[in-house]
UniProtKB/TrEMBL annotation:
Binding annotation for ATP: G239, E240, S241, G242, S243, G244, K245, T246
Family affiliation: Belongs to the TRAFAC class myosin-kinesin ATPase superfamily. Myosin family.
Residues of the Myosin motor domain: 146-765
BP GO annotations: establishment of epithelial cell apical/basal polarity; intracellular signal transduction
The entry's keywords: Actin-binding, ATP-binding, Coiled coil, Cytoplasm, Membrane, Motor protein, Myosin, Nucleotide-binding, Synapse
CDD domains reported for this sequence: RA_Myosin-IXa
Protein name per the record: Myosin IXA
Keyword Iron: no
Domain Ras-associating positions: 14-112
Keyword Membrane in annotation: yes
Amino acid sequence: MNINDGGRRLFEDNEHTLHIYPGTISEGTIYCPIPARKNSTAAEVIDSLINRLHLDKTKCYVLAEVKEFGGEEWILNPTDCPVQRMMLWPRMALENRLSGEDYRFLLREKNLDGSIHYGSLQSWLQVTEERRRMMERGFLPQPQQKDFDDLCSLPDLNEKTLLENLRNRFKHEKIYTYVGSILIVINPFKFLPIYNPKYVKMYDNHQLGKLEPHIYAVADVAYHTMLQRKKNQCIVISGESGSGKTQSTNFLIHHLTALSQKGFASGVEQIILGAGPVLEAFGNAKTAHNNNSSRFGKFIQVNYQETGTVLGAYVEKYLLEKSRLVYQEHNERNYHVFYYLLAGASEEERLAFHLKQPEEYHYLNQDCFIVEGEDLKHDFERLQLAMEMVGFLPKTQRQIFSLLSAILHLGNICYKKKTYRDDSIDICNPEILPVVSALLEVKEEVLFEALVTRKTVTVGEKLILPYRLTEAVTVRNSMAKSLYSALFDWIVFRINHALLNSKHLEQNTKTLSIGVLDIFGFEDYENNSFEQFCINFANERLQHYFNQHIFKLEQEEYRAEGISWHNIDYIDNTCCINLISKKPTGLLHLLDEESNFPQATNQTLLAKFKHQHEENSYIEFPAVMEPAFTIKHYAGKVKYGIKDFREKNTDHMRPDIVALLRSSKNAFISGMIGIDPVSVFRWAVLRAFFRAMVAFREAGKRHVQRKTGHDDTAPCAILKSMDSFSFLQHPVHQRSLEILQRCKEEKYSKAENLDKLCHHIFIWK
């Protein structure tokens, strides 16, 4: 397979070569090349391996995929397609498959109990456990302790000894350290082989702190605590940008789903595997500190039966950084997906979507274009395959890429003042309007009017007023940001639908869950704005949660139990949180007030901040007339520029822009704007049900007409069968009529009406 070919690879037609490493199963064979196509299953590949290597056919074998980030093994189901998994690998892994230690397929033998047989691993574990027991009993000397795996065990606990202990452990590639039940992770920025099956087995059902600190231990404790106490669990991940939070989330999710099964990966894990590159492409970007920084927060909830079997999962997103779409700081880029699309699209797609080069788009040409070592064409192919794994059909993918192109072209629209009217503007480059209107499938003249004028309704009349120059740019950017945000919400919704399990809909099914929260790290850049303000406030609340549960509540419990205890002093950040969020004078509430005043400006907002909180020790205002303020966060002081605070806080589309997009002939775009996506989805389900029933009845009628005069009993039998399954007599239809009538009587809105009508269709089995 040629990885460096210039054209697009047709996954469906090409034959690929899989290099399978059999290990001890076939002595003397390093790897076995097996030809396979995109849709070849793991079972078919294993059959080929058995025949090629003359293996024992009475034994059960599985394929395992080793991932780049640490040697952990993902066991493939018999119906999984190894070629599809391989095409999700980075370009360098595909080019260096023979020499690479990571990214490969292994052949494993399966035991009778469903577990995987790892040969010498079992004896290795037994020896390790025996050595530990002998050291505990004093038969073997204790190793000289140069570092402590739990900072609570330090004989002298202060900042210097704490940092020195972390430094010593890191030098020996010990990146994990406990602080009681908290795990500290230092990003090594390199491959460490500490995630392979021997570590998975080692930490299975072990008490926290008995073994060397590891992220698997945290996942294992959360899982078994959930099963024993029958209570939901949550794992919170926080840290600064680039500290490895998203990678740690990947480890946790993989281990949490693997714990509930013996051998094969679940369907949930497979979808999460495909969802990762999709969310990364649309929600990650290059920043000054990190080439692949998550610009949104997410909460992933894995749901289980009471027996511990995975039921499904759910993804919730928070605070997508919409402003990045229209503006990037120095040495930063827009979201990855735009660069993937422009580099990887075929000639046919380039013509259909009117694609250009990145430097020709205003939303992309503000700073850097290229990140060293990336292969955008290959990344685009990975994205397409990942979208297919999640369930996005080729037609849906084309609609998404068309919308992305429309957003980029929308950003190229420029304005100018008309010479004969001071308060009127015009578009400098009207040749872009036909492109945008064609991609959005809206009328060009209506698009023009929405971009240069606003409609205001007063008592008895409608006014059409021209935008000022700055207002028009704001409306254009707001339209682009709202479109991208709606698209991202829709993608997350579709992923959640793919992760949905029908057993969730059964009222009698009791479920347990483990949630993993992965949000932005604390940020302090050269120029901090509203986005950093929101991100750091979220981290401030997390720190408060940490303080409450680790210090305050724990010490109160000790006092209540009469335990002799010296209180530990800690920095309580409640005052900082009150400064930002407490009603009625918190900064966020003052911001909302100013956002509702038409004549307010960012300067009046800053003046209100100063008037209310000038004496507060947690906020500082510059001595000179600088439009900024400084907050003393738990992690240090951060200066925020007040510019665009009001605009970003009220970032929404005007009604005439919403009406324009709802008038689109493209149902994908019109349904995405302004309506609850759940209602849209349920309405699509109901519409498909109607169409299926009508088609069934029409087919029956045509069959009767063809058979008339030949066999009277057959049509009668068919009609009788149809009547017994008639839509008019079906309980779904009867329930629909009841809900429609109730919605009509209670005067619900259209979206509410559709949602209530379709809800029982969605859960009906």
